Amino acid sequence: MIWFLTLLAILGAAQAAVIVPGATWTDTSGNIIQAHGGGFLKVGSTFYWFGEDKAHNSALFSAVSCYTSSDLVSWTRQNDALSPISGTMISTSNIVERPKVLFNSKASIGE
């Protein structure tokens, strides 16, 4: 009987952090994750996920989103890494696909 209760406890814990292929994946605020064509970085114990925001179901540029996680399952949306700038090659009438982000350990935050 103890092995059965242990198994139930393990399964219960596993269900709390499950990724279901093909299912809608939401961030910690309950919004659908918008990080299409994305890439990942790990800095310290934090994972960063950058991708295309396609919330409006358009190929035109809306934003390069940024999410953070410590476990690769629960993701929190941060400020956008890149937003449209009118009159430039990254305006809302342009297309931005598969954004790439690099980490520079020599640059300090806020520069």
UniProtKB/TrEMBL annotation:
Which keywords fit this entry according to its UniProt record? Signal
Identify the species of origin: Tetrapyrgos nigripes
Q: Which protein are we looking at?
A: Uncharacterized protein
Extent of the signal sequence? 1-16
